[in-house]
Specification:
CATH architecture of the largest domain in chain B: 3-Layer(aba) Sandwich
Oligomer: heterodimer
Largest sheet of chain B: 6 strands, parallel
Structural class of chain A: alpha/beta
Strand order of the largest sheet of chain A: 2-1-3-4
Number of domains of chain A: 2
CATH class of the largest domain in chain A: Alpha Beta
Helix content of chain A: 40-55%
CATH superfamily of the largest domain in chain B: NagB/RpiA/CoA transferase-like
Number of helices of chain B: 23
Strand order of the largest sheet of chain B: 1-10-7-4-2-3
Number of helices of chain A: 13
Radius of gyration of chain B: 26 Å
CATH architecture of the largest domain in chain A: 3-Layer(aba) Sandwich
Largest sheet of chain A: 4 strands, parallel
Strand content of chain B: 5-15%
Number of domains of chain B: 3
Distance between the termini of chain A: 24 Å
Shape of chain B: globular
Shape of chain A: globular
Number of strands of chain B: 10
Distance between the termini of chain B: 58 Å
């Protein structure tokens, strides 16, 4: 099938390897991938800040651009939740509400698309490391994704998955929250990093690069050895 | 100083306090273990939540008739009911009774509604001595501070701190034993029950069908507060109503499980009136004060009306990573944690309290924990939206308009990324200094480098 891959702004600018890994994996599974050039962001920063008209200004081209897509796979649980869960709220009472609902029905988060959408758990990956998985809250609670990324990790050769304590606790990123309330965000991140480190893992893996940006930022400043990596990059490793 | 500034200042202080962090997180981890154990005693916790949400939905959406039923039945047995639209009216109603009885001593059991209307301050200002009879509440009262948590008022204190406090305030010997500490407070308390003329309680539920209030507690102090003084006063919010007596069969274990990880609280008592003819005990008169204090405004908001379902169990506080890191006092409100952040803007004004809705990562742990399924974290989003509509942050909106323009035009977006790449090396000259525009982020976190080749650039090379 033809898969429309939605690459969020920060993955485009900061973590292109995450998107590239996804393209390669989907193509390897025999699908045609398209990435519309004129879509760059889901509008979540404005939405979460309460600026809904500004969020709609970003979201409207997304609705238009994805109108003819068969399925839309989003390279982040958080942005996926924005398209799937929050667009209907954002466009409630406007003439694009129905369109938002139609789009919502076609949207998948990447790991969930592989497992529940395509029925694939073994992508032939090999990654020799001990890892612990961090659930981004939007993927976990807005989209209800918990088992899919784990099923994928379980099938990666030479990889050992160790669950951390309190693995459903937020890492403290929270989008603009991280800059508006940095002291709270940092404290939450410190708690999360400590839980991850206690597992003795080499990597914190997540299906959300935004959480990882925050955690890696804290780890680098504190010169801690544990590293962060997106799930797609592991799945693309051979 | 505004409430928002106070919040930030306090948050800055408490989040750095590693001792506080350890204390609260350890305590709440123990709670989670107990709660999960008790949840398993329900045949199906999710169905129980759904049922509870539906009962509260019915109660709140028919509040007018249920309240009238409740009051008619209370009055039929001689209870005096006072309707209070505002906090001031509720205080006046209570002060009126206290004055009329020429009370010398007042004993009080735990009631967050009393915190909401600052009842103790009002009574003390008029010269009445009030003693809190709940152990945790008594401890924070001796410290002259508000309760730290809706259910666990003194959870931020260690037994050593409590021992020091009792030693200082009551002259007791130092001890580390919780039982001995409890006995010290109990000895003081027993005398207070006997001498008090008026007992003030809160309520956990108000049963419309039978005109009863239900109080749940673990220490028996509310029973004594209600039973020994000649006059009993009960203060409760109008949202406490449930339709039928049998609803308690669900709500009592649910409140105990979600609130404290208990199957049932130690004491569950129902009150239906003052001492009736031929009865040997109970208060001679009972006054029930029903408080609105802008709850009806929340009722008029169809989007957030379900916030009135709240049974004040504190489950959302217990799982909230914000609460666990900033602590209960930082909020500066009677109701802290997620439910406080949702309802305080409704009860006390969005303009002054919108920061509480901003201070959330919107992780949704609260919504997942809420036994009556209040859509807590989405209400925080709605509060943020309403705050922008009410009082637009011009610069922030402008920034988002500019951002929209950039991301909506591929050439501008490409240009922005190139600009970022060009100027990022210069960033290290100001990194973490006062001139750093990204200081809120970089003060504690490294900033990731812009990619040499963005995803979209890579994608274009493939075509």
């Amino acid at each position: 099938m033809t898969v429309t891959l939605f690459i969020p702004c920060f993955i485009d600018a900061l973590y292109p390897r995450v998107g590239i890994s996804m393209v390669r994996l989907l193509e390897q599974l025999g699908h045609r991938v398209e990435c519309p050039d004129d879509i760059a962001c889901c509008g979540q920063p404005a939405f979460n800040s309460g600026c809904w008209p500004e969020a709609r200004a970003v979201a409207e081209p997304v609705l238009t651009g994805l109108r003819n897509s068969e399925v839309v796979v989003v390279a982040s649980g958080s942005c996926g939740a924005m398209l799937k869960k929050f667009y209907p709220d954002l466009f409630a009472g406007t003439d694009r509400f129905t369109e938002a609902g139609v789009l919502s029905g076609k949207v998948w988060e990447f790991s969930d698309f592989l497992v529940r959408g395509l029925g694939v758990t073994d992508v032939g990956a090999k990654f020799a490391a001990k890892v612990t998985f961090h659930d981004g809250c939007h993927g976990l609670r807005e989209l209800g994704i918990k088992s899919s990324p784990r099923k994928l990790l379980e099938r990666v050769q030479s990889l050992e998955l160790i669950e951390m304590a309190d693995n459903e606790t937020c890492c403290g990123f929270g989008g603009t929250f991280s800059a508006k309330y940095p002291m709270i965000s940092t404290a939450m991140g410190e708690v999360k990093c400590a839980s991850a480190q206690a597992t003795g893992a080499d990597y914190i893996v997540s299906n959300d690069s935004s959480c990882l940006m925050h955690l890696q930022g804290l780890l680098t400043v504190r010169q801690q050895p544990i590293k962060t990596i997106h799930l797609a990059e592991i799945l693309a490793s051979r | 100083m505004t409430a928002a500034h106070q919040f930030l200042e306090q948050a800055r202080k408490v989040t750095r306090d590693l001792r506080h962090r350890g204390l609260i997180q350890t305590a709440l981890r123990k709670y989670e273990v107990k709660r999960d154990e008790k949840k398993r005693a329900f045949p199906d916790w999710e169905s129980a939540r759904q049922a509870a949400a539906e009962v509260k939905w019915d109660a709140i959406n028919h509040l007018d008739t249920y309240l009238e039923d409740f009051v008619a039945r209370l009055e039929s047995r001689g209870t005096r009911v006072h309707w209070a639209s505002t906090a001031a009216e509720a205080r006046d109603a209570i002060l009126g009774v206290v004055r009329e009885r020429k009370a010398k001593a007042i004993i009080k059991s735990k009631a967050m509604t009393a915190e909401e209307i600052h009842l103790n301050d009002a009574l003390e200002k008029e010269g009445y001595a009030v003693v809190e009879s709940d152990l945790g509440e008594y401890i924070v009262q001796l410290r002259h501070e508000p309760p730290y948590h809706i259910v666990f008022p003194a959870m931020h204190l260690t037994r050593d701190e409590i021992s020091d406090l009792f030693h200082r305030e009551l002259g007791s010997a130092q001890t580390r034993e919780p039982e001995e500490l409890t006995m010290i407070a109990r000895r003081v308390m027993r005398q207070k029950y006997i001498t008090a003329d008026v007992g003030i309680t809160g309520a956990n539920f108000a049963v419309a069908e039978t005109g009863m209030i239900s109080i749940t507690e673990n220490e028996g102090n509310a029973r004594l507060t209600a039973a020994l003084p000649k006059t009993m006063i009960t203060l409760l919010g109008i949202e406490k109503v449930i339709p039928a007596l049998e609803d308690l069969a669900l709500f009592l274990p649910m409140l105990a499980t979600a609130g404290a990880g208990q199957t049932l609280t130690g004491y569950n008592t129902m009150y239906s009136g003052p001492r009736q003819a031929g009865e040997a005990d109970g208060p001679e008169e009972w006054h029930v004060v029903l408080l609105d204090n802008r709850r009806t405004e929340l009722l008029a908001d169809p989007e957030q009306r379900d916030a009135l379902h709240c049974i004040r169990c504190g489950a959302c506080l217990n799982v909230c990573p914000i609460f666990k890191n900033v602590g209960g006092h930082t909020y500066g409100t009677a109701y802290s944690g997620p439910i406080g952040s949702v309802i305080t803007p409704h009860l006390r004004g969005l303009k002054d309290w919108k920061h509480l809705s901003g201070a959330s990562s919107l992780c949704g742990a609260c919504t997942e924990a809420c036994p009556v399924k209040i859509d807590l974290h989405h209400h925080l989003l709605q509060n943020r939206r309403n705050a922008v509509v009410e009082d637009a942050p011009i610069l922030e909106r402008l920034a988002y308009q500019l951002f929209a323009m950039v991301v909506n035009h591929p050439t501008l977006w490409q240009f922005a990324k190139e600009l970022g790449r060009t100027f990022q090396p210069l960033h290290r000259w100001v990194l973490r200094s006062k001139l750093d525009p990204a200081r809120a982020w970089t003060a504690t976190r490294d900033i990731p480098p812009m990619a040499e080749m963005s995803f979209k650039e890579w994608w274009r090379t493939r075509r």
